[in-house]
C-alpha cells in the first residue's frame, strides 16, 4: 500500500509544473510571494523578509527568485538586509529574477560586502548572468581573502 501511495505521489509530481513543496521546500512561500508580486505589493514582500526567523526570511527571498522579475524590488530590499544569510539568498535570487540593471549592485557587493558568503554569492550570480562587463571586478575578487569567494570568481570568469 505504501509503495502505491509513493508511486501516485511521484506520478503527480512528474505531471506538475512545480516540484512538491517547491524548490525551496515550501510551496506556500512561493504562492505567497507570487501573490504579493502579482499585486505589486512591495511592502508585503519587504515585510516577508523582515521576519525575525532567518530561515523564513531566506525562504521568502528564494521564492521571490522563483517568481521572477515581478519580485525584483523585494529582492533588492533583501540585498540590503543586515543578515548575511538573507543577503546571500538575494544574490542567488537575482540570477533568476534580475536583469543587467542589477549588475552594478552585484559588482559592488562582490568587492565591498563584509560577509564572504555574500561576496561568493555575488560572484556566483555574476557568472550565471554571464556579466562580461564585470570581468575586471571578478578578477579583483580572485585576490579575496576567502577561498570560496576566489573559487566562485574563478568559476564565474570561466563561464
Task: Describe it.
- The protein is globular.
- Helix content is 70%, strand content 0%.
- Helix 5 runs antiparallel to helix 6.
- The protein starts with a helix and ends with a helix.
- It is mostly helical.
Shape: globular
Helix content: 55-70%
Number of helices: 10
CA radius of gyration is: 17 Å
> Structural class of the secondary elements?
mainly alpha
Bin the strand percentage.
Answer: under 5%
Distance between the termini: 48 Å
Q: What's the mean pLDDT score?
A: 81
Summarize the SSE layout with pairings.
Elements (H helix, E strand, L loop, with lengths): L1 H14 L11 H12 L3 H8 L4 H14 L4 H7 L5 H14 L5 H10 L3 H13 L6 H7 L5 H12 L1
Helix pairs in contact: 2-4, 3-5, 4-6, 5-6, 6-8, 7-8, 8-10, 9-10
Brief summary:
The protein has 159 residues and is mainly α. Helix content is 70%, strand content 0%.
Amino acid at each position: 500500500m505504501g509503495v502505491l501511495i509513493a508511486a501516485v505521489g511521484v506520478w503527480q509530481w512528474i505531471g506538475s509544473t512545480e516540484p512538491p513543496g517547491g524548490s525551496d521546500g515550501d510551496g506556500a512561500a512561493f504562492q505567497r510571494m507570487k501573490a504579493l508580486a502579482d499585486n505589486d505589493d512591495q511592502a508585503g514582500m519587504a515585510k516577508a523578509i523582515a521576519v525575525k526567523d532567518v530561515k523564513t526570511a531566506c525562504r521568502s527571498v528564494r521564492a521571490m527568485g522563483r517568481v521572477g522579475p515581478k519580485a525584483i524590488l523585494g529582492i533588492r530590499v533583501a540585498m540590503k538586509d543586515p543578515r548575511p544569510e538573507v543577503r546571500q539568498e538575494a544574490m542567488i535570487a537575482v540570477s533568476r529574477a534580475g536583469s543587467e540593471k542589477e549588475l552594478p549592485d552585484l559588482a559592488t557587493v562582490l568587492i565591498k560586502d563584509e560577509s564572504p558568503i555574500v561576496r561568493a554569492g555575488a560572484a556566483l550570480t555574476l557568472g550565471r548572468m554571464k556579466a562580461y562587463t564585470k570581468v575586471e571586478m571578478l578578477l579583483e575578487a580572485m585576490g579575496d581573502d576567502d577561498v570560496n569567494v576566489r573559487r566562485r570568481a574563478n568559476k564565474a570568469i570561466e563561464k
